[in-house]
Amino acid sequence: MQSFQLHFFQQRNMTTVSIQNAGMKMFSRNEQKVETTRFRLSQEGIRHLLPYLEKQVVKIGEEDMLKILKTEETMIPLESLNCKDDVRAQSTGSLVLYTDRSDPVCTWVSASSLFVHYSKQLNHLFVLTLLACYESVMRNSYLPI
């Protein structure tokens, strides 16, 4: 619902002003036909949604978070994580993992794997820096020259 002032502005400036879609992505449509969930959480807006989430949220150790962030694979086997029991206790679908609630990571959990929902390049560095585990080797391999 838009305000009266915005509506008035649009009507008076219809030929000179173009309103573009703006905002933050909170959910993405899940296009997989085998899943019953139609939407999944988006990494972009998870910091704003996390205070309202009570389910599908798991606190994990730094070791597991580093393993998740450093991997180049799209699928991470649950068996390779120390937090596998906590993750399996949740239902399949979107799952938020965090070591610190201010830096959550959105994932998708299947019966045996974990999929991370973020860009695997510069976001790697951002999250690793926040975890105070920044490595210069990673930085040199990801930053454009």
Q: Any overview of this molecule?
A:
There is one protein chain. The protein is α+β, with helices and mostly antiparallel strands. The chain is 30% helix and 19% strand. It has one domain (24-142). The protein has six helices and seven strands, in the order H-E-E-H-E-H-E-H-E-E-E-H-H. A hairpin with a 3-residue loop joins strand 6 and strand 7. The chain starts with a helix and ends with a helix.
Strand order of the largest sheet: 3-5-6-7-4
Biggest sheet statistics: 5 strands, mixed
Number of helices: 6
Q: Roughly how many Å is the radius of gyration? A: 19 Å
How many structural domains does the protein architecture include? 1
Q: How far is the N terminus from the C terminus?
A: 45 Å
The count of strands amounts to: 7
The level of helicity is 25-40%
Unreliable stretches (pLDDT < 50, length at least 5) are none
Strand content: 15-25%
Q: What is the structural class?
A: alpha+beta
Run of helices and strands: HEEHEHEHEEEHH
pLDDT average, as an integer?
Answer: 76
What gross morphology would you assign?
A: elongated
Question: Outline of this structure?
Answer:
The chain is an alpha+beta fold and 145 residues long. It contains six helices and seven strands, in the order αββαβαβαβββαα.
Secondary structure layout:
Elements: H1 4-12, E1 27-29, E2 39-41, H2 46-49, E3 57-59, H3 62-70, E4 75-77, H4 84-88, E5 93-98, E6 105-109, E7 113-116, H5 122-130, H6 136-142
Parallel strand pairs: 3-5
Antiparallel strand pairs: 1-2, 4-7, 5-6, 6-7
